[in-house]
Amino acid sequence: MSKKRDIHVVPHKDGGWATKKEGASRAGSRHGTQKDAIDQAKGQAKREKVEVVIHRPNGQIRDSDSYGPDPHPPKDRKH
């Protein structure tokens, strides 16, 4: 069984924001704004049926959205 590879939206070391799959050593894409990176990550996550994890500039997790089959869906309904 293959391991799920969530997509993280993280600050890029050279400025801006990047999308990065779990376990990857390099960023998948780089963007000028966090919104652009989130939009890219959401599209990719929908195709791959994985989760998007959005980080703050300091690296803390800000939010996450699941786009795949979730065996234990959250009880809160933020969307």
Structural commentary:
With about 80 residues, the chain is of the alpha+beta class. It has one domain. The protein contains 1 helix and 5 strands, in the order βββαββ. It has a 5-stranded mixed beta sheet with strand order 3-2-1-4-5, covered by helices on one side. β1 and β2 form a beta hairpin. The model has no long low-confidence stretch (mean pLDDT about 85).
| Helix percent band | 10-25%
The H-and-E topology, N to C, reads as EEEHEE
Helix tally?
Answer: 1
Radius of gyration: 13 Å
Instruction: State the secondary-structure class.
Output: alpha+beta
Name the descriptors:
alpha+beta; about 80 residues; 5-stranded mixed beta sheet; single chain; 1 helix; about 30% strand
Write the layout of secondary structure elements.
Blueprint (H helix, E strand, L loop, with lengths): L6 E5 L5 E5 L7 E3 L2 H15 L2 E5 L5 E6 L13
Give a short synopsis of this structure:
With 79 residues, the protein is an alpha+beta fold.
